[in-house]
Amino acid sequence: MTGENKKGSEQSRREFLRTTTALAGAAMVGLPAHEAAAGKKHPKRGGTIRFGMRDDSVGLDTHRNFIYYVSQPMAGLTGGLLDFNEKMEPVAAVAKEWDASADLKTWTFKLKSGVEYHNGETIDAESVKWNIERILDPKIGHSFNRSALTDVERVTVDDKLTVRFHLREPNAAFDTNVIYYPVNLIAPGSADKADTHPVSCGPFKFKSWKRFDTCELVRFENFYETDSEGNSLPYLDGMIGKPKKEDRVRLTALRTNEVDLIDNMAYADAPNFEKEHGKSFNTWKVSQLGTAFIAFNLKNGPFSAKDNPDAHMLRMAAAHAIDHEGIHEVVFNKQGHIAKGFYGEASPWHGKDITPWPAFDPDKAKALRKKAKGGDAKLLIIANDSFPYMQQSGELAHAMLKDAGFDVTFEIHPTPVVQDKYNKGTFDIDSSANSYRIDPDGWFSRSILSTAPETIRRHGYKNEQVDKLILAAKVEKDKAKRRQMYADVDTLVNKDLPLIYTYFIPGLQAGTKRIQGYKPAFTGPFNYAGGGLRTAWIE
Amino acid sequence: MLAYFIRRVFYLVPVLLVLTMVVFTFVEMLPGNIIDTLVGTEGVNDPEVRKILEKEYGLDQPVYVRYVKWLGRAVQFDFGKSLVTRRPVAVELLQGIPATMYLAIVGISLSMLIAVPLGTIAAVKRNTPIDYAAQVTSLIGISIPEFWFAILCVLFFALYLGWLPSSGFVSPFVDFWGSLKFLILPAAAIGFRQAAYTTRLTRSSMLDEMNKEYVDTARSLGLAERKVIFKYTLRNAMIPTITISGLQLANLLGGTVVLETIFAWPGIGRAIYEAIIQRDYPLIQAGVLVLGVIVVSMNLLVDMTYRLLNPRVKFA
């Protein structure tokens, strides 16, 4: 397996054709060749972009904290063994090539020579090993970062530029787990200052941070990536992250020229923004930040087979009560798409033939609820207060279930309370969502597989056939076959209804016309191979 | 006066002690804990990891042991490290408190600058168009929610006129004039609303004072009306105004989470709010303690000001 990123060569071929066509056209109309060629915008070095973002990291140590790659400025400084490209596929980064043993239990990564951390330390196999062990330390590594490495039994160093991961279980998709999100690398020599001055190997390096105010990053002059002409990336001198939690506050800041770029425009503003402000601003659609769903508590209560023989019928009743079109219109303002599985159409993991959840049918919902034991039980829907769409989807589900005759109440809570309710099983329905997973194993093995801690804690779904499919897909090398297996799992999920997929969470980024060469990946990140802020410049 | 001051400072000790106990107990009673936050909704969440983290953060000890240990360090001004950011709590607080103080003090000063003259004029020109205008304006000020007024200010002055930035913060120690640009809108949003209350209060206090005999005496002695109003009446009428403004200031120093969010102002309100959400115990404890100290100090300061305004006030 090799990580050669073909995007660069494709781009240069396209640019070559564009340029030669322009030159030929110029010759026909008698224009000087250089003027015609000047129609093509060429990247410029320099400039600093001010990025208004929804979120800010909790702390600076990128192992100890979860650095969300879409809406936290610190994601600009993280780098890792591998990168992902615009399609969210793994490509080379610090590692130039990698391979798995026949039994998929040993993965070997060969590092590029001469790649450095921001402080000039050389990235070698020993430092990669040190990083992995640091992330795996439960006293240090954030749970999400660690969860990418749960299969790792040990890491060994073959030589200065070869590092080997020995896994407990075979894993065909392990490479996606060592992409910089979330397994980023920091300079071992900087560990004692990781909480105050992080040193990683991404396109930008740390300058200053004031939580909820400013995160200032400057260009890393020795970043490993170059453009198709061999110019080192990024083109920008730096980025200044300006965390502004409220969507409208960010939008106003963009319109008043206080920032150049914003993420996550409010769904209420997105439909008309391009029409009303398209002359002044560019927009970039993000098709799947994640996937929203409504999960049932199968561990106890009326939706659990343990407590109610008609639990499945009751879940069917609830599913028939949910109007996905209503969520599409009310919560997302007709932006994005309804979800029938975990992956949307833009994803290489999109399953085409998934049998969807029960269709919206209020009469059937009422009839099933009346028929099922526990149909009159008092139910509680919960939603996390972190994201408005979770609350709004919960509110809507509450209204829809009430219409179907369910006796249901709705509560919004902060994360610790929601987690406490998961732990104690003191909820019936959860309006929630998961961010996009680069490999389906990241969703199915962590949140659907019956033995996964997260499954046990949150909904307690158990289906042997589903488990077999997930475990088989994990060791299947053929991508098409894996995709089909996961589609089959989603079909079973839609039948069993431990959860109802509702929506592929869309996003809209907007920026001034001065920003050129920028495009987020389809799941929203701004730091990826061959694109995002790495290839952006300011005119 | 010095003895009174020392006695009042001495009284603060039990007040703050009870405050820390109450906060410690309430935080302990909140559902969910820091370990839930640290293990997250993702990935590994087994009892072993929880145990390791509980030990790492000292949460394996009984609550009273943790409280006593915390108190022992706090009296030495060592508030420990944030469980979430891993930075010293003092650093976290010192990042937010100056920004909040800057905003609150300017906001309250602005409100006083508007309210005292307006309330005084309204009282002196009672039942005239000036009085009616002042009363209607203050009624509108009280009725408009602060956040809505703030959003209107942003739309008008930042978006349509483009005179001021819509959000953000620059430290006055870095760029004083630059910082004012960012300060004007949030300070105005605070100042105008607080001024609405204070105007009404000043007016009614002035009316009370103006009906007292010493005012008639002053007038009968032939003192100029301006002197009667500004030297004697207003000075006495200011006591309730100062009291309320002091409490308003203490309240604002406690954090203005909504305004801080609208103006992306990196103050203490949002920092403590996030600490509560994440169950960052040391930061909550220290934050509440510091705010408690500020509030009781403000009260003390207000009490001391009475004496300056009215020498007849005796310190018991």
Nutshell version of this structure?
Helix content of chain A is 29%, strand content 22%.
User: Which percent range fits the helix content of chain B?
Assistant: over 70%
Mean pLDDT over the residues of chain A: 91
Q: Strand count, sense and closure of the main sheet of chain A? A: 11 strands, mixed
**Distance separating the two termini of chain B:** 9 Å
Helicity level of chain A:
25-40%
Poorly predicted parts of chain A: 2-38
Q: Care to count the β-strands of chain A?
A: 21
Please give the most extensive interface between any two protein chains, plus how many residues each contributes. A-B, 48 and 49 residues
Which percent range describes the beta-strand content of chain B? under 5%
Distance between termini of chain A? 38 Å
Tell me how many strands of chain B there are: 0
* Overall body shape of chain B: globular
| Share of residues in strands of chain A | 15-25%
Helix/strand order of chain B: HHHHHHHHHHHHH
Count of helix runs of chain B: 13
SS summary, helix count of chain A = 15
Radius of gyration of chain B, rounded? 24 Å
- Quaternary structure: heterodimer
- Give the CA-based shape of chain A: globular
Task: Report on the biggest sheet of chain B.
Answer: none
Mean pLDDT of chain B: 86
